[in-house]
Amino acid sequence: MLQLRPLTIFLFLSLISYSGDASPDDVVRSSCSHASYPTICLRTLSSYKGPAKTPSDLAQAAVQVSLSRARKLSDYLAQLSSTLNKGKGRERTALTDCVEQISDSVDDLSKTLAELKHLRGDTFQFQMSNAETWTSAALTNEDTCLDGFEGVDSKVKTDVKKKITNVARVTSNALYMIKRLDESRDKPRRLKP
């Protein structure tokens, strides 16, 4: 009787998950299974409007979701900051810093998405390094924003923390998808030489 080794089974299942016959839902499900936040990953990428057939498609979709949420958060924080001009000193300072940090996150995620949309075979590794660095920086900015509210006890902190945690989780999943693309041997066929 033929015995299959675990590595052989893994490779076989990997090939099936990337075959042209796999449905987009199957590709998303198998890709999200090891993300930092698999349930959020599955929910956000399953409902994403656009192609999700390759690791490149998934990485772009994940970054787009993160960028969209970061932009909404940035708008929310800017509006909140303008209404809290007379707030408590520490809370106001934390919020002002947070507005800047999330704005930086939006810039980093925008650069990441642009890089992922123009991958080239001869510069693939360099571009992937850039994408990982910028997405990591965006995640750090989000974490730093939360850190600024340490010692502040208010409804503002609670609201901001909830919204930032949501953005940080989708950004963490986006970073996972980028790393997954970088590690993948199935580099996008659309790469230019």
Automatic annotation (TrEMBL):
Domain of life: Eukaryota
Name this polypeptide is given: 21 kDa protein-like
Source organism of this protein record: Melia azedarach
Organism placement in taxonomy: Eukaryota, Viridiplantae, Streptophyta, Embryophyta, Tracheophyta
